[in-house]
Amino acid sequence: MSCDGMKILLSGLIDGELDAGQKKSAESHIVFCGGCREEYARLLKLKEVTDDMKYFDLPDKLWAGYWQGIYRRIERGIGWFLLSLGAAVIIAFGAWRFLNDFILDPRISVFLKIGVGALLSGLIILLVSIIRERLFIRKHDRYDEVEI
Q1: Which among 47, 40, 45 is positioned nearest to 26, based on CA atoms?
Q2: How far apart are CA 54 and CA 82, in angstroms?
Q3: pLDDT tens digits for 80-120?
Q4: Distance CA 105, CA 98 (A)
Q5: 67 phi, psi to nearest 5 deg
Q6: What is the pTM (predicted TM-score) of this model?
Q7: C-alpha torsion 84→86→87→92, nearest 10
Q8: Which helix (DSSP H) or strand (DSSP E) does residue 96 occupy?
Q9: Are 40 and 13 in contact (CB under 8 A)?
């Protein structure tokens, strides 16, 4: 087998993913080819280094302190206020345009206006119902104080 083909098999050899025939062929090639032997040694060293790597976990007290911090509360409060303000402005503008361009337009049939009104009313009622339910669940979450 050529060195180019062998270099593809070297990772499989290191990870133990080759069948018996491929493994024997790769091992015998490494014995006679210095370039592939060096590549194999380099990949083995890389595997050793990556196997020894450990993730650094922050202490739970540090995370708990962060999530309870005043900065987080202020930051989220401002974010929600600005999001709500922007949504209210956009909804008000859309409602005004909808009223002017659709509801007050005499060319559009009353039947279509009633249908669109019913559709929008149902959508708004369902949206408000989902939001109320999510807020209730969030307020009464029995696992809120549980620390993992």
Answers
A1: 40
A2: 41
A3: 999 999 999 999 999 999 888 888 888 999 999 999 999 99
A4: 10
A5: -70, -20
A6: 0.41
A7: 120
A8: helix 70-98
A9: yes
Structure tokens at 2: 């050529």
Residues 6+ apart with CB under 8 A from 30: 6, 36, 37, 40
List of residues 6+ apart from 12 with CB closer than 8 A: 18, 22, 26
CA atoms of 4 and 33, how far apart (whole Å): 12
Tokens of 4: 């180019």
Q: Which amino acid is at 117?
A: G
83/76 Cα distance (integer angstroms): 10
Quick one: DSSP state of residue 2? Answer: -
Q: b/e per residue, 88-110, with b = 16+ CB within 10 A?
A: eeeeeeeeeeeeeeeeeeeeeee
